[in-house]
Design a protein that fits this description.
Elements (H helix, E strand, L loop, with lengths): L2 H22 L1 E4 L6 E4 L11 H27 L19 H9 L6 E4 L6 H16 L3 E5 H10 L9 H8 L2 E5 L9 H12 L4 E5 L5 H12 L1 H8 L3 E4 L6
Parallel strand pairs: 3-6, 3-7, 4-5, 5-6
Antiparallel strand pairs: 1-2
Helix pairs in contact: 2-4, 6-7, 8-9
This protein binds adenosine-5'-triphosphate (ATP), magnesium ion and zinc ion.
Amino acid sequence: MSNRDDLEVVLAPTDRGRDVWEQAATNRMCPRCKRSYSAPPMPGVTHMLCDECMAADESARRDRERDARATRHVLVTIPPRYAWATFDAPEFAVRDPVATDRLRAASADRGIVVLGPSGVGKTTLAVCKLRQCVAQNGSLGMFVDVRRLARAARQHPLGSSSEVPLVAESIRADVLLLDDLGEERGADDAVLDVIRDRHAQDRPTIVTSGHALTMRSGIEVFGQRYGDGIARRLFQGAVVIELRLPPP
Ligand SMILES: Nc1ncnc2c1ncn2[C@@H]1O[C@H](COP(=O)(O)OP(=O)(O)OP(=O)(O)O)[C@@H](O)[C@H]1O
Ligand SMILES: [Mg+2]
Ligand SMILES: [Zn+2]
């Protein structure tokens, strides 16, 4: 037998097979979009999505995976004390309905500042908002305590704060919750870098602080401490929520 014959022997059944396959292709109806499409017969398979619907399913699956990754990421950085905090959690008590509704409906795009006295629930509300942003946009959210950020920068041997991993991550996160602004020791460059760089890159930051009770005093207090440029970046265009202790 020549090589050619060999080839024919090998190829022939496949070719014939394809012909048979194509001739037998039947019209099916996609159970999702109800369009008809042609597909080879598959014994036992009665309901099969068309290619377009299958591709849509696949892309939805990838989106869900990405959201789950973002949710896992944000969960890792949220302190366990606030692990429960979402707007819809059964533990969540609406203390200030107006402020809560405003925050819940607010766009985080130009930043959010939550002000108020200690214990009023600033961090709790801010965590709820962070989680909401992550769930709605599949964005990468991160929680960072400003003291921790400043400490990480202080303790790092490198001179430039942008080389400190926690600082770099804080700048990179799609949405950052910067908790307790003003509580850090010293006017650390790291905190300023994070606020400035995030603002320059249009990345929203949610800030909580007990160092001011109103936007007016916040602009003054933070202006004095960090400079007017930082105060402007914090407050201009931002949604400012002023929480008050309930009357006794
Ligand atoms: N909406 C809420 N529903 C239920 N519990 C809440 C709510 N808000 C706050 N708490 C509880 O009250 C306590 C104080 O809340 P939180 O830490 O959010 O206050 P804070 O304003 O951030 O305080 P600080 O200025 O000391 O950081 C926490 O134990 C928290 O679990
Ligand atoms: Mg707090
Ligand atoms: Zn379809």
